[in-house]
Each structure stands twice: as structure tokens, then as C-alpha cells.
Design goal:
Elements: E1 2-13, H1 22-32, E2 41-42, E3 48-58, E4 61-70, E5 75-79, E6 88-92, E7 102-111, E8 114-118, H2 125-138, E9 148-151, H3 156-161, E10 165-184, E11 190-199, H4 201-209, E12 220-221, E13 230-238, H5 247-257, E14 266-271, E15 274-277, H6 278-281, E16 284-289, H7 299-315
Antiparallel strand pairs: 1-8, 1-9, 1-16, 2-3, 3-4, 4-7, 5-6, 7-8, 10-11, 10-13, 10-14, 11-12, 14-15
Length: about 325
């Protein structure tokens, strides 16, 4: 038995005027590309690939497994010896030229535009989002302008409780990289000083969230920061007037912007009805699935867990069947 986590996403199409259904499009694409290797998308290097392997219908859902691999990759192994001061490390090659080691496996279930994923350490929603855009474009089922995003969907009951957004607060850990700076003092002498350049994923996310007219500093002087390589920045966006626009639409926009943010940035939306946190907007569910004698997840059980959660989400009105 192994413990996994399911997350819920909703497929958003850039062309909202068209009648889009991700389940139908994926099914058509997989029927066009019958063999697994015909669905192979190249990665960052020439010998790195990802593809949808097994797929099929399950109780009205299109389910499947998505994995990535590097051709010719060898798996490092360590030889354990209680008396050794340093363990011996070697590399294990695949058993034959037709085999390769898999890096990760992601399991998915798609119903209409609802997407439920069981992610792995390396394969997550951003990689699956990129792959389905590539596959559908390769099969001429979407145009380049009609790309798809896998967004978080604010639960219906939470969206209904929200009225009049007042403020959004972001919390992001940042890394400070030391840089050497030169300037002339009042005596026109060359002086060197140490400054810091903010970086890390959280900082990059904040820069993307801000509108174009607002910018974050590119460098910080040593006098402006504590001598610490890991700090946290708080960014507060507020309005002089309370927002009276559609709260559901506003939440959708925030959720889509932060759809691939897991722990890099925390945030809270302050409204007249109370505070909504990041965890309130992300739908998750821990599950237990049995494994076979080789340690692989029993796929039929995974599809059952995905189907069960979809039924729960619909029955509790946490998602809309027309999402």
C-alpha cells in the first residue's frame, strides 16, 4: 500500500467562445496517435522524452498514465556495507537496448473539463499542461492561439461566500545572492561595496503577478537587509475602493495566475466576508492505493480513487459539472 495525493484542476481554454471539451479532444488525439511512441514529446535535451502511455475509458472518465524518461540513462545505486567508511556507488544500466529507466509516473483522470491528477516528484501539473497542449496541436485539434491552462478552481461554496474584495496579500521566501558593486564617493574615489540580488521561485512568481506598471527592485543594498540568505517578502495589493465586480470571476483570475504555485508563494485574499487562503482555493485529497509485487501502483485502484473523488466533489457541490 502506498499513499498518494490527488489534486483537482479545471481546463481553461484561451478561446472561450468555442465549445471546448478537453475529454473529447484528448480522446480524439489518442485515437489519432495509436502507438505510444507516436505520442512522444521531446524534452529539454535530445534524448529526454515524455508521453501518455496507457489510457482508456473508466466509468465515463478518460484515464491514463503519463511518464518521462531519458534514453540511455543509467540508475545510480549504492552498495551498503556497515563497515565501510564510504559506500560504493555504481550505475545500473537498463536490461537491454529496448528499455529505459522511467523518471516519474503521473496518473490522470479527465471528465469534460475537470482534470484530477496524482502527481509525482518530477512530473506535475505544469509538465502535463505543456504535454496536452503539444499533443492537441500536433493532432491539429487546437490552434496555437487556443492554448489550454490547467487552473485551480475556487470551490463553489467558497466563491459564493466572497463579496467585495479589499486586499490581496502575498508571502514569498526569497534568496539574496551577494553581488559586488562599484561607485565613486564624494572624493571621487572608487569604492567597492556588497549588495544583494533577490532571486528564487517565489520572487519570480511575484514579478509575474504584478501589473506591468509596477516593478520590484532588482538589487538591494546591504544596509537595507539583514545578513541572511533566506528572507520572506510580503507584498500587499489593496484598493482605495472596495471591488464590486463578480467575485467568482475575480477568484478565477487569481487562481489561474497561481495555478502552478504550490509552496513557493503563500497568499490570502481579504474580503468583507472574511479571509480566503491559498489552501481554501486548492482542492486536494490524500488517498491510499495498493501496489503490485514490483512496487507499482495498481492502476485499476487509482482509477477507482479518482472516480470516487470526482463523485464526491460533484455531490457536495464543490465543483460544477459545467466547469
Amino acid at each position: 500500500m502506498t499513499t498518494k495525493s490527488l489534486i483537482y484542476k479545471v481546463a481553461r481554454f484561451n478561446n472561450e467562445s468555442a465549445a471546448n471539451n478537453l475529454q473529447d479532444l484528448i480522446t480524439k488525439a489518442l485515437n489519432k496517435r495509436k502507438t505510444a511512441l507516436s505520442r512522444k514529446m521531446a524534452g529539454d535535451t535530445d534524448n529526454q522524452f515524455s508521453l501518455i502511455n496507457y489510457h482508456g475509458p473508466f466509468k465515463g472518465i478518460r484515464v491514463g498514465e503519463f511518464f518521462d524518461y531519458t534514453h540511455g540513462h543509467k540508475q545510480p545505486i549504492a552498495e551498503f556495507d556497515n563497515k565501510a567508511e564510504a559506500l560504493k556507488i555504481s550505475a545500473l544500466a537498463p536490461p537491454d537496448k529496448k528499455s529505459d529507466f522511467l523518471h516519474s509516473i503521473l496518473y490522470f483522470g479527465i471528465w469534460k473539463n475537470s482534470v484530477i491528477l496524482s502527481q509525482s516528484m518530477a512530473l506535475r501539473a505544469p509538465q502535463f499542461e505543456a504535454y496536452i497542449n503539444w499533443l492537441l496541436a500536433e493532432c491539429n485539434l487546437i490552434t496555437e492561439e487556443n492554448f489550454i491552462t490547467l487552473s485551480d478552481l475556487p470551490p463553489i461554496k467558497i466563491a459564493k461566500k466572497i463579496s467585495n474584495t479589499k486586499e490581496i496579500e502575498f508571502f514569498a521566501p526569497i534568496k539574496l545572492d551577494p553581488i559586488e558593486k562599484e561607485f565613486k564617493n564624494n572624493a571621487s574615489q572608487e569604492v567597492k561595496t556588497i549588495g544583494f540580488r533577490p532571486s528564487a521561485i517565489g520572487w519570480d512568481v511575484l514579478k509575474k503577478i504584478l501589473p506591468s506598471e509596477m516593478t520590484l527592485p532588482k538589487e538591494l543594498d546591504v544596509k537595507d537587509v539583514i545578513m541572511n540568505s533566506a528572507l520572506e517578502v510580503t507584498l500587499r495589493l489593496s484598493w482605495s475602493r472596495v471591488r464590486h465586480d463578480d467575485p467568482t470571476k475575480f477568484l478565477d483570475q487569481i487562481a489561474n495566475q497561481l495555478r502552478h504555485v504550490e509552496t513557493e508563494v503563500d497568499y490570502a485574499i481579504h474580503t468583507r466576508s472574511g479571509k480566503i487562503t491559498r489552501d481554501d482555493l486548492k482542492l486536494r485529497r490524500p488517498i491510499s492505493v495498493s501496489t503490485n509485487e514490483e512496487g507499482l501502483v495498481r492502476k485499476h485502484e487509482m482509477w477507482e480513487r479518482i472516480h470516487e473523488w470526482l463523485e464526491i466533489l460533484l455531490s457536495e457541490d464543490r465543483i460544477s459539472p459545467d466547469a
